[in-house]
Amino acid sequence: MKVLVIGLGGVTNGGKTTLAEKLKNMLPNCDIISQDDFFKPESEVETDERGFKLYDVLDALYMDEMVASIRNWMKRPTTSGVVTEEAQNTCDNLKNVYILIVEGFLLYNHEPLNKLWNRRYFLTLPYEECKRRRSTRIYQPADTPGYFDGHVWPMYLKYKSELEENASMQVDYLDGTKSQEELLSYVYSDIVQELNKLRE
């Protein structure tokens, strides 16, 4: 039995969750873990001097729990509740391969996670498009006026530049303004190549 752990990270509202769900429907024995499920309750998230809740930082998340969940899945993917029915285009020789897609906005800046990835993807968006998409979403708690410019976007730029400075980190940057079909086709083909390497 082999496992493949795929990171699908990047900018807020970049299309990570949608892409992860579509890949899950196309790949054999595929499961998703979402970083959003590991946010601390609002009362435990720090507030800065401007009154902004600092959600876009690692300290706002139970990262140790997230790492533990991924490791547990890797040890026992068959008991994770993953659906093992045939996905489209599945070859018989992939029945013993289990795929985990981990999606979230801060995946590659936490050292314990970096030992786990087989492939890393990072969705990007230009500022205007990201702000436009973000304004159409309802968050709990809701974004306060100035929150995107004062916290969300600066944190995205900070973590992205940290990532780019880390020369040892192999990351495939994806343009989030491309159509979902285009992104899906590219990532799916890339994962299938990775699966074929596992089979060899």
Automatic annotation (TrEMBL):
GO cellular component, one term: cytosol
Known pathway: Cofactor biosynthesis; NAD(+) biosynthesis
Protein's UniProt keywords contain Transferase: yes
Gene Ontology MF terms: ATP binding; metal ion binding; nicotinate riboside kinase activity; ribosylnicotinamide kinase activity
One Pfam family matching this protein: AAA_18
Swiss-Prot/TrEMBL catalytic activity: beta-D-ribosylnicotinate + ATP = nicotinate beta-D-ribonucleotide + ADP + H(+); beta-nicotinamide D-riboside + ATP = beta-nicotinamide D-ribonucleotide + ADP + H(+)
InterPro entries xref list: P-loop_NTPase
Record keywords: ATP-binding, Kinase, Magnesium, Metal-binding, Nucleotide-binding, Pyridine nucleotide biosynthesis, Transferase
Gene3D superfamilies: P-loop containing nucleotide triphosphate hydrolases (3.40.50.300)
Record-level GO BP terms: NAD+ metabolic process; pyridine nucleotide biosynthetic process
PANTHER family attached to this UniProt entry: URIDINE KINASE
Family affiliation: Belongs to the uridine kinase family. NRK subfamily.
Name of the molecule in the record: NRK1 kinase
Organism: Leucopsar rothschildi (Bali myna)
Lineage per the UniProt record: Eukaryota, Metazoa, Chordata, Craniata, Vertebrata
